[in-house]
Amino acid sequence: MNTMNPTVTSETGAGVVEDKVAPVKEERPAEAELEEGVTVGTPYSDDPKFKLRNVEVFYGESRAIKNISLDIARNEVIAFIGPSGCGKSTFLRCLNRMNDSIDICKVKGSLQLDDNDIYDPSRDVVELRARVGMVFQKPNPFPKSIYDNVAYGPRIHGLANRKSDLDDIVENSLRKAGLWNEVKDRLDATATGMSGGQQQRLCIARTIAVSPEVVLMDEPCSALDPIATAKVEELIAELSESYTIVIVTHSMQQAARVSHRTAYFHLGHLVEVNETNKVFTSPEHNMTESYITGRFG
Ligand SMILES: Nc1ncnc2c1ncn2[C@@H]1O[C@H](COP(=O)(O)OP(=O)(O)O)[C@@H](O)[C@H]1O
Ligand SMILES: [Mg+2]
Q: A Pfam family in this protein (predicted)?
């Protein structure tokens, strides 16, 4: 193939315009096209795990989340997508008060988990984070043994009275994370010596060891190779039987593979929420369409 040829052909073969080069990235539509607080599609649910209303998040004077309302249904997998900097991580971190540690960050609006205020000042944040666990972009195992990484949460939450109970929790969590067979003979080995993909599955095992109700994942596969990514995606599908999962991803293919609903964010607005299939085949909002067809991002 002649890479010098300036004529770009579309990968799909559809809608090829012969005399034009590929659409320019970073061509971001004006914010004026967005109406604050308006989300097209199906942002609400009959059986919400999270009920989020008129959420705004500020970093100092700057408003990173602009009046977002959304329900996250019990046992659904919802994907958050959108251009970098549009507020996906910020919004995700509101769900277990991970933003509390950022001094200049202020969260406004109503955020409920099972009809109880997440931001109630009397709420025990450690307990909240056990119920709403989090997996980060970069696997961050503790510099301890594989066993101790998984046993850490159950120990601090007093979930096991006897060594054999703790052993069971560790084994079950590693099994659910699809890691047991790979590590059962070296539970005393240091976790930081594992491969990246194994470390990420270990972090998932550590999160589920405290029996959370919700797992938040912020680009959990962006540091992984395709094989490790496939394993984590398989795991998400299995976990979705018992947990509510919110996943931020920059990969639209990943969102399409793992999620039931997809939420499209843009410049701090929640533009569209719909069944994932609909978002990727017939999006309702023209900005969603621009994003998924690669006109900006
Ligand atoms: N700790 C922080 N302090 C100040 N501004 C922040 C902080 N984290 C994020 N922001 C700003 O908030 C906006 C949303 O960021 P973020 O939630 O990280 O977006 P995304 O995850 O979609 O890439 C960006 O403008 C970003 O610069
Ligand atoms: Mg982010």
A: ABC_tran
The distance from CA 274 to its chain's CA centroid, rounded to whole angstroms, is 16
Local confidence band at 32 (pLDDT 50, 70, 90 cut-offs): low
User: Do 224 and 232 contact (CB within 8 A), yes or no?
Assistant: yes
Which atom of ligand 1 sits closest to the CA of residue 268?
14
- Within 10 angstroms of residue 255's Cβ, the number of other Cβ atoms is 25
Tokens for 253, please give them: 């293919």
- For the chain, the maximum distance between any two Cα atoms, rounded to a whole number of angstroms, is 72
pLDDT in tens, 162-180: 999 999 999 999 999 999 9
Which residues make up the environment of ion ligand 2, defined by Cβ < 5 Å?
89
Per-residue pLDDT tens over the stretch 208-245: 999 999 999 999 999 989 998 998 999 999 999 999 99
Q: For the domain with range 31-292, which CATH number is right: 3.40.640.10, 3.40.50.300, 1.20.1250.20, 3.30.450.20? A: 3.40.50.300
Structure tokens at 283: 């999006």
Pocket of ligand 1 (CB under 6 A): 59, 64, 82, 84-90, 102
pTM of the model: 0.89
